[in-house]
Amino acid sequence: xxxxxxxxxxxxxxxxxxxxxxxxxxxxxxxxxxxxxxxxxxxxxxxxxxxxxxxxxxxxxxxxxxxxxxxxxxxxxxxxxxxxxxxxxxxxxxxxxxxxxxxxxxxxxxxxxxxxxxxxxxxxxxxxxxxxxxxxxxxxxxxxxxxxxxxxxxxxxxxxxxxxxxxxxxxxxxxxxxxxxxxxxxxxxxxxxxx
Length: 195
Hints:
The chain is an alpha/beta fold.
């Protein structure tokens, strides 16, 4: 993250994260816009952030965040435009296929799987896996805002030497470090949601 700040500058970082936050708050925005905002957020959190669904012809999840050493991955299937009252059996099945693709790509990684969408249950015919969680786009927007704060704190120190320490302190205060983030996100297991 400190390297991104040093390479891109505080203004660009602020602009990119503000745009990602705004896109995640925009309930009328397109699915592609939401997916790119999630990817951008992951990049600025220091992950290797990609959009495998685009790159693999639909085999991978919409967005994947991987730690640089590949020991932890977070996969997102963005369903901000496809779900009203329930997550369908078909949608859950595709999401499970995406999780299997990630497992093949990162067999030794800790994996966290999220649907990005409304907090609604799966259809009664569905059997969502226990690890599948639902997180709202607004929660990811909140994280984007907190990430902006971490960069703002660091850029307030004029010496780049202090950027890594300031970012680390800010991430620890907001539970956004890689080890804490999957659990600190406001989310709920899909299999416990009821109509």
